[in-house]
């Protein structure tokens, strides 16, 4: 049954139905709706410090590191990230905990009454701000798409951070690194501190030019020397952790507090985010796994580099979206593993998913593999349950690709969503 737009919101299910009317993947590049909503709701100048995190890869990890560091320093901390795996409630956290469904009912009523034209992402952005208001000292907002027209850019930031910028969302942001960097750089709109990781030269030139034009200070974060014992594993996390440390130092200066090295270390080591080289032990329903949302070439290269020095997987499962550069990502995986281990390509329940048979053909249509294997459509749950019977406890399967692939894993096996334990 379709949701009537002016029907009163009474339950969390009503909120979900209202959100469904907006379309999860609907994008409308404009900040006009956000500016209007912020003005109507008196959110143009939030009661808390705002940190905006932009970039291509590492935004979620950097945001999580920074939020956990803030919490260890006794700062009430709001965290807004995207996308979610199972429920939109995952996107909004206060002091490390996702908000409850009941918490979202009143913000939804307010938005329905004052700003009914917001998109899905804009709705959740405003809902997060309403929930953070007068409850947090700091809000960390992860950009969803680009920078120039992202909903988080409508909110005045006190500090801006850039993770590595690479090719992604090319259909929307442009097909070159310069176009993507130009879009993301437009989030710098005032003389606030800007922190960044080391960038490709073209991206760095664009960021530094924008910082100069707005008189914003721009500082490059050094990677962390040691990430041993972190729940978020992989050499690439040294880059994200280093950015989070520099960001906190800038934030601490704004808040006039003294950073504690022991609390910095604790915040970094205990930060957890599912789907980032996440290790899961074998169960009766699935094999031992490493799960990672490395869907684009840069993300796949990062994962391969992290795994190269250790035990190699016994199988790989991959799925990508049609509007991403999945062929380049899959070719990198094939160069590493084709002919050595089996590969599986599940059918996703997602309108943006690329055809699993196309990915299968790219992998197996290779002269050195002999006769081409036939494609058999399966869900990721079916594949994992079969592999649970075939693999040994000391082996692991690499599950990599779109976050929507991981979402189907977490929907099938919800215990994995909040499990930071190493296998």
> SS-based structural class?
alpha/beta
CATH superfamily of the largest domain: Mur-like, catalytic domain
Number of helices: 15
Taking all residues together, what is the mean pLDDT? Answer: 91
At the third CATH level, what is the topology name of the largest domain? UDP-N-acetylmuramoyl-L-alanine:D-glutamate ligase
Radius of gyration: 21 Å
Ranges where pLDDT stays below 50 over 5 or more residues in a row are none
Please tell me what the overall shape is: globular
Main sheet strand line-up: 4-3-2-5-1-6-7-8
Specify the CATH class of the largest domain: Alpha Beta
- Tally of individual domains: 2
Number of strands: 13
SSE string, helix = H, strand = E? HHEHEEEHHEEHHEHEHHEEHEHEHHEH
> How is the main sheet built?
8 strands, mixed
Beta fraction of the residues?
5-15%
Measured as a percent range, the helix fraction is: 25-40%
CATH hierarchy: architecture of the largest domain: 3-Layer(aba) Sandwich
Euclidean distance between termini CA atoms: 43 Å
Polypeptide structure, described:
By secondary structure, the protein is α/β, with parallel strands linked by helices. It folds into two domains: 12-270, UDP-N-acetylmuramoyl-L-alanine:D-glutamate ligase (3-Layer(aba) Sandwich); 278-416, Mur ligase, C-terminal domain (Protein-Tyrosine Phosphatase, Chain A). 39% of the residues lie in helices and 12% in strands. The protein is built from 15 helices and 13 strands. The strands form two sheets. The chain has an eight-stranded mixed sheet, with helices on both faces. A hairpin with an 8-residue loop joins strand 9 and strand 10. Helix 3 (59-72) crosses helix 9 (237-255). The model has no long low-confidence stretch (mean pLDDT 91).
